[in-house]
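[recover] target loaded
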């Protein structure tokens, strides 16, 4: 990890040399937001869409961010990923307190931190566990406050799973680090409609737009978890996963129907849309 490029308050160095105060509000209160921007052969996927989501999260939290600086730092990190797959993680906190206090000072200096990580993105199907959604109620803000996700996903890990699918009162919300889509028994593509409890995923939007006006046009709304028992295919979408099917979902009778034609066709449309977005970034 010593050679991972990182940046803190505008200074580029390696990750092992970054020093952040323990009184950073990111550390004491999760008073911070983040974005993960994927790069494929050095090209960003939907760069400005990620920036727009960052702006929305910042607005919801009352963070006054210099976006010219933030974009410049992200691009500086991204330059280290030339011709490589990977991602830039970029985090912004309200700042560093003199003394830990719930009430923040109005004159805190915004704190900026990020790093660039070469990575191979997963392509194989994964297993997941169904669980209650016990996260805080503003998951539309891409906050670093992820304890609910962490507890659920590590319980799932103990059962041999790589993800969770969460629900409230029998209706699907999202996965621990992904949005969720599935085919219902009638062959329609379903996903939860956006709300304060669901992050507006960039890849989620790519898929929905790719399927618009086609035979697999996505139906957004309230999705009963009882649908999973009869679904031939459930899958995840995220910036680092793309589209990734679930082999099984512990807590349901769901089993992936291998080579399900509907999923293969949807995947083909999605991959074409992804390629179009990457070409537009050149």
């Amino acid at each position: 990890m010593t050679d991972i490029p990182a940046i803190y308050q505008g200074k580029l160095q390696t990750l092992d040399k970054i020093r952040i105060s323990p009184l950073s509000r990111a550390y004491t209160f999760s008073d911070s937001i983040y974005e993960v921007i994927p790069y494929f052969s050095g090209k960003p996927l939907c760069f400005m869409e990620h920036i727009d989501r960052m702006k929305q999260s910042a607005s919801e939290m009352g963070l006054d961010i210099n976006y010219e600086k933030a974009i410049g730092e992200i691009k500086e990190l991204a330059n280290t990923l030339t011709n490589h797959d990977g991602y830039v993680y970029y985090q912004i906190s309200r700042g560093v307190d003199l003394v830990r206090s719930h009430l923040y000072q109005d004159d805190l200096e915004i704190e900026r931190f990020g790093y660039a990580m070469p990575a191979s993105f997963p392509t194989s199907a994964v297993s997941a566990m169904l669980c209650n959604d016990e996260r805080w109620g503003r998951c539309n803000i891409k906050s670093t406050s992820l304890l609910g996700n962490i507890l659920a996903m590590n319980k799932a890990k103990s059962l041999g799973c790589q993800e969770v699918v969460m629900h409230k009162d029998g209706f699907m919300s999202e996965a621990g680090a992904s949005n969720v889509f599935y085919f219902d028994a009638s062959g329609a593509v379903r996903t939860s409609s956006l709300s304060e409890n669901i992050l507006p995923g960039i890849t989620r939007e790519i898929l929905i737009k790719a399927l618009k006006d086609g035979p697999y046009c996505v139906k957004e709304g309230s999705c009963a978890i009882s649908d999973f028992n009869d679904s031939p295919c459930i899958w995840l979408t995220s910036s680092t996963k793309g589209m990734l099917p679930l082999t099984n979902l512990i807590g349901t009778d769901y089993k992936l129907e291998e080579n399900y034609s509907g999923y293969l066709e949807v995947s083909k449309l999605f991959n074409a849309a992804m390629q179009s977005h990457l070409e537009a970034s050149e």
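[recover] notes: The chain has two domains: 5-118, 126-280.
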